[in-house]
Amino acid sequence: MTNMTCVIGRLVSDLEINETENGKKVATITLAVSRSFKNENGEYETDFIPCVLWEPIAERTKEYCCKGDLIAVKGRLQSDDNGIHIIAEKVSFLSSKKPE
Fold first, then answer.
1. Distance (Å, whole) CA 68 – CA 63
2. At 97, is the pLDDT very low, low, confident or very high (cuts 50, 70, 90)?
3. Which tens digit of pLDDT belongs to each residue from 34-44?
4. What are the start-end ranges of the H helices in the chain?
């Protein structure tokens, strides 16, 4: 069996990296993913997908991306007491507004 998913969306906010008790760096992000069809009111709806990024993916994403940037996250679905989220295995930067 395989547990793999890929989503493309926009960062809802800038990344904040935190440290766990054992010193590992982690960031939780939310991607806004627009649906490809309109609802009964003729509007596109958006899903908000939580993703967890561990080091070094979290550090690279914070360095190159900011709120509103378009990114792709490939990873696995995981459920726990906080609900279902994606554990990122790869992040691709599709657009970047961050100044160099």
1. 14
2. low
3. 998 999 999 99
4. 57-64
Tokens of 10: 């926009």
78 closest CA partner among 97, 52, 48: 52
Q: Which amino acid is at 47?
A: D
Selection from 60, 70, 73, 68 nearest residue 95 by Cα: 70
**Pairing between β-strand 83-93 and β-strand 18-19 as defined by DSSP bridges:** unpaired
Bridge partner residues of 52 (DSSP): 28, 87
Q: Tell me the residue type at 60.
A: R
Q: Which residue has the tokens 């709806």?
A: 45
pTM of the model: 0.86
Where residue 34 falls (left for φ over 0; alpha for ψ -120 to 50; beta otherwise) is beta
For residue 82, the 8-state DSSP code is T
